[in-house]
Amino acid sequence: MTGVPGLTAAGVASATENVDADAAVTVAQVMLESPLPQLDRLFDYRVPPSMLAEAVPGVRVKVPLRSAGRIARGYIVSVSENSSYSGNLSDIEEVISRVPVLTPEVWALARRVADRSGGGASDVVRLAVPPRQVRIERAWLAATEPDAPVSEAAAGASPAISGYGTGVVEQAIAEGRRIALPAIPTVAEVAPGVWVGRWAVTLAEAAAVTLAAGRTAILAVPDYRDQEQLVAALAARIPAEKITALDARQSNPDRYRNFLACLHSEARVIVGNRSAVYAPSARLGLIAIWDDADPLHIEPLTPGASTRDVALIRQEQSGAALLLLSHSRDTWLQRLVELGYITEIRQSPTVLPHVVPTAQQGDQDAPAQSARIPSSAFSIVRTALESGPVLVQVARPGYAPVLACACCRAAAKCPACEGPLKLAHANATPACGWCGAISAAWRCRSCEGQRLRLVSLGTGRTAEELGRAFPGIRIIVSDGERNLLTVSAAPALIVSTRGAEPVAAGGYRAILLLDGERMLARESLTVAEDCLRWWSNAIALAAPRAPAVIVGVGGVLARTLVTWQHDLFAHEELQGRRTLRFPPAVRVASVKGRADIVDATLAALLDSATAGESATIDVLGPVEAEDGLVRAIVRFDYALGNEVARSLRSSVVKNATGRTRTQTSSITGTKTTYRPPPTLRVRFDDTEFLE
DNA sequence: AGCACGCCGACT
DNA sequence: GTCGGCGTGCTC
After folding, report:
1. Angle between the N-to-C axes of helices A527-539 and A566-580, in degrees from 0 to 180, rounded to the nearest 10
2. Is strand B in 7 Å reach of the CB of A672?
3. Residue A66 CB in 7 A reach of strand B
4. Distance from residue A627 (CA) to nucleotide B6 (C1'), in Å?
5. What is the DSSP letter of A62?
């Protein structure tokens, strides 16, 4: 920690010596830790003389709120000599800890993220600052020198980024630019016997370059599987003490310890999941995101900002470089590339996978057919199995995740709860996927039939069929339940659900993407780009020149994989969204609540927003949602984002206050005050509404 | 979330 | 005239 800002000796003297009405007072602006929209603003508190040394921006405090007994927690975000509040200021009750955990930079970031997504700053700060752990904090304070020396860039060979032309990415990072990088679709050995996706090497190289320049790099990945690969790649080129992990799988103490480490001013590499993008850093040089279109990068808690939205804001505020790395390209990124806001840097030399499309299944080869494999792919797999592992990607885990009546084909429902019936393994009794009830004596509701038919096949069933088709070959299953990170170079068939594919030593000798048709059948605005992402990430696990066979997918999607021209596909797809006025051509916000409130909210929005010729707002709905509520979708151009967010937010605040009602039960005579839970909910940029 | 304040009906 | 139930709104 370097000194204590915001405090002068003169300030201390005048505050303690003068008791007059016009005495100089030190006032702290405090952000309250509360999800209530009406408290989402700064409150002024007087800093009592005894706390002047500790009451600096960023520290946690306790403050009185409304009446003497009530204490709220919050953070000091700034300190000044006067207040714009006309009423009487209360004193800060207590400085909980003198560690300034909410740095001014992160506070500004949280405020803007909240404003952009119609949420409260304290909801964002909750993601950015982990819960306090007293023991950890005490140890950190004891170990931290008041003026820790800033160790400058380590001497030695300057690291480089390979695969994109000499010095190209290095320069972009040094200039603090925003760049999109197509990941190199192969695997790499980062230590003897340790194999990772080649993307992880690129990120590790970018981090090493940033570190060598004396700056900090934040690397955000979707989940721990990616993080393991990235950490392995980092370990090969960066000293362990320079690497700080911040992720959801850590225990609270571990997370807090690592978070506190980030408060030090020396440069480091911060690696973690979506919350890492909020990590404090005095000298941020790079924010890099792997596979930024992965939905795991979207925060499920309100206000639900995604890593890349946060990163764009932080890039702007900090001047650090932004690097988005992925195998495929989604329409969101394509839009920003076409705008010129993000620059694409191409591979050099170009490394392309070898993708083989096949016709629909249904060939004559009996064992292959039972395993849903066209005979052409069958021979590719058999040949590949002579030299190493082969990956088979399927859509669903389990054995038979969907069952139907063999007679009338109606979906098999649980007699107890109407949930879907499924088979756990070949000889299992059908069980409900929702309530788990066993249905030994199932009988079809519509035709009285008693025989079940397997509609969809999961990893388990596929593994069984492959075992029959390739006798003597070892079969390994990796799915949500049994999740493997790596497999050896020994010949084996690895059956995996999308996203759970292990990395094979040396790469897979062949890859078979089986359930393309089924994956495309999902009803969603983004199916095509989602599928391309899943397939591309699997294909990238192939050994050099090893064939990747995609079954049952043709047309533009197959062509995109074969030519590996993801930008062309994204361009076409984005054109379609523009004509339809769907995201990401426009932004959306869903507004849900009681019908009258939603109506008033939309009226206020359309009244206040200054739609012009180039920027428009329109509303889809409202339509009935669950529990008597209605939901409307507001579509608006990016230029109107601030106005729309401000208007919707003010409606949320207005409807959050008041609205308590006292109800007297006519039966018992008891009085209950309650707040009707469904007032008004707003969520921005959620594309799940088109299911 | 709590809690004070104020408005309106019933009361010594 | 004033007590108090109960909605309304504010919180530095």
Report:
1. 170
2. no
3. yes
4. 35
5. E
Give the pair of three-digit tokens for residue A285. 């040089």
- Residue A49 identity (one-letter amino acid): P
CA distance A535 to A64: 55
Distance A652 CA to B2 C1' (A): 20
pLDDT digits (tens, 9 = 90+) for A365-419: 444 455 577 888 889 999 999 999 999 998 887 767 777 888 887 888 887 777 7
C-beta separation of A390 from A381 below 8 A: yes
The nt closest to A90 (CA vs C1′) is C12
A374 in Cβ contact with A358 (< 8 Å): yes
> How far, in Å, is the CA of A678 from the C1' of nucleotide B8?
30
* Listed residue (A465, A452, A507, A460) closest to A479, CA to CA: A460
Tokens standing for A584?
């990401």
- Closest residue by C-alpha to C1' distance, nucleotide B1: A36
Nucleotides of C under 7 A from a protein CB: 6-12
Q: What is the pLDDT of residue A663?
A: 43
d(CA A532, CA A538): 10
A34 touches strand B (CB under 7 A): no
8-state DSSP, A131:
P
- The phi, psi pair for A291, rounded to 5°, reads 50, 60
d(CA A569, CA A269): 34
| pLDDT tens-digit series, residues A563-620 | 999 999 999 999 999 999 999 999 999 999 888 889 989 998 988 777 666 679 999 9
What would the pLDDT profile of A61-73 be if each residue is shown by its tens digit?
999 987 766 888 9
User: Does nucleic acid strand B have an atom less than 7 angstroms from the CB of A86?
Assistant: no
- Domains of chain A plus CATH, in order, are 1-100 (3.40.1440), 354-577 (3.40.50), 587-690 (3.30.70.1710)
- Which pLDDT does position A360 carry in this prediction? 55
Query: Is pLDDT of A52 > 80?
Result: yes
Residue at minimum CA to C1' distance from nucleotide C6: A662
Residue A67: which nucleotide is closest by CA–C1'? Answer: B3
Binned at pLDDT 50, 70 and 90, residue A336 comes out as very high
Mean pLDDT of A347-363: 80
Distance (Å) from CA A65 to C1' B11? 36
Helix residue ranges per DSSP H, A453-540: 459-469, 516-520, 527-539
Which chain B nucleotides are covered by protein, judged by CB under 7 A?
1-4
Lowest-confidence segment of A94-103, A156-165, A450-459, A548-557 by average pLDDT: A450-459
Burial label for A656, CB within 10 Å (0-12, 13-18, 19+), is middle
The enclosing H or E element of A381 equals helix A375-384
Other beta carbons within 10 angstroms of residue A22's beta carbon come to: 6
Does the nearest atom of strand B lie within 7 Å of A87's Cβ?
A: no
Closest nucleotide to residue A39 (Cα to C1')? C11
Find the Å distance, CA of residue A600 to C1' of nucleotide B7.
27
Give Cα A395 to chain centroid, integer Å: 22
CA atom of A653 to C1′ atom of C6, Å: 23
